[in-house]
């Protein structure tokens, strides 16, 4: 059976195929809580129409142009379903459940049913796998978006006192983030005309040579702008690790806690805090 | 105990995941807090090298027993261009890139056993051990 005959078969039996397909989908376990019957039918009808058009031009080459509308439709479908909470299997089942009704039609009308079924089977497998691929790409895009929003969230520079800035770092410091942190800090130093910046690493779980290098660069850059940096929140295990790594912190001032660093900064600015004896 | 996992190492976020898993393995092996931090940092160094200089690879993480002591065992491999002169690469401050040049030598000091093998043009394999 040539491709055009398959297209014709799809067209002539469109309504029965559609009906049997939706029944097969329901039998395979449709997520009735996430999608209503009308949408299922509308999706199925659209896919069947696109499949008919694409098949008319040949079903051997999945990469060719006539398959791009159907790919586009599957892409949209699997993206939107992934956001609605469907699993990749749910979306792939949508395609795979077309097999049964379509195969029985081919068996009925084809002269070489085994060959044709094999061909259609391969095609539907490709379509099904394509939805899974789209699902994965969709997920990865979401993860990337989240990572980017986290980058922005987690770099607040706060002013503790006139002339004293603090930047509490939390989480892992990799190239992109440290870049943003460094820029945010330097900008704020100019903006607030601060003399002292406290970089607190209490919330940084690992300080390896790259993190150390970034910290040192930030300190040097701040120094060039006339601000003094204090690194605080170095926990004992981090201190031991830095020593074994062989990283030289040079003349960078370090303090165990943010409170110590703040106290030192106040002293540096000749500010004295006095507890009042009476209220 | 005896859990063995392999993780891909293709992008920077994979290093974050590997660090977390190494920490979990170190906790499972009941390593102290300092030892945990050391093996995690060493893993971070070697994994970053494999990614930046080796073009990515994979990392095997295992919590096991060695000579009757609980241990964490890591094997990080890449299929990059390899290291021409390992002795030189192990010297403090030597780098072929723009890091501090302390990654390899530092990682060696952080662990109890450090084995590095490199085939020019084929890749590099680093084995790290830290025990209780």
Mean pLDDT reading of chain B: 92
Name the CATH architecture of the largest domain in chain A: Orthogonal Bundle
How big a fraction of the residues of chain A is strand?
Answer: 5-15%
How many domain modules of chain A? 2
Oligomer classification? heterodimer
Could you name the CATH class of the largest domain in chain A? Mainly Alpha
- Helix fraction of chain B, binned, reads 25-40%
Run of helices and strands of chain B:
EHHEEHHEE
pLDDT under 50 segments of chain B (min length 5)?
none
CATH class designation of chain B: Alpha Beta
**How many β-strand runs of chain B?**
5
Query: What's the total helix number of chain B?
Result: 4
Separation of the first and last Cα atoms of chain A: 98 Å
Count all strands of chain A and give the number: 5
CATH T-level topology of the largest domain in chain A: Globin-like
Major beta sheet summary of chain A: 5 strands, mixed
Estimate what percentage of residues of chain B fall within beta strands. 25-35%
Query: Outline of chain A, from the CA principal axes?
Result: elongated
Structural class by SSE content of chain B: alpha+beta
What does the model show?
The complex is a heterodimer of chains A (about 280) and B (about 130). Chain A has a 5-stranded mixed beta sheet with strand order 1-2-3-4-5, sandwiched between helices. The relative contact order of chain A is 0.08. Chain A has helices at about 5-10, 15-25, 35-55, 70-85, 90-95, 100-110, 115-155, 175-190, 210-225, 235-245, 260-270, and strands spanning about 160, 165-170, 195-205, 230, 255. In chain A, helix 1 packs antiparallel against helix 3 (about 35-55) and helix 3 (about 35-55) packs antiparallel against helix 4 (about 70-85). Chain A has 2 domains: about 5-150, Globin-like, CATH 1.10.490; about 160-270, Transcription Regulator spoIIAA (2-Layer Sandwich), CATH 3.30.750.24. The N and C termini of chain A lie far apart (about 100 Å). Chain A has 11 helices and 5 strands, in the order H-H-H-H-H-H-H-E-E-H-E-H-E-H-E-H. Chain B has about 130 residues and is of the alpha+beta class. Chain B has one domain: Heat Shock Protein 90, CATH 3.30.565.10. Chain B is about 35% helix and about 30% strand. Chain B contains 4 helices and 5 strands, in the order E-H-H-E-E-H-H-E-E. In chain B, a hairpin with a 3-residue loop joins strand 4 (about 115-120) and strand 5. In chain B, helix 1 (about 10-30) runs antiparallel to helix 2 (about 35-50) and helix 2 (about 35-50) runs antiparallel to helix 4 (about 105-110).
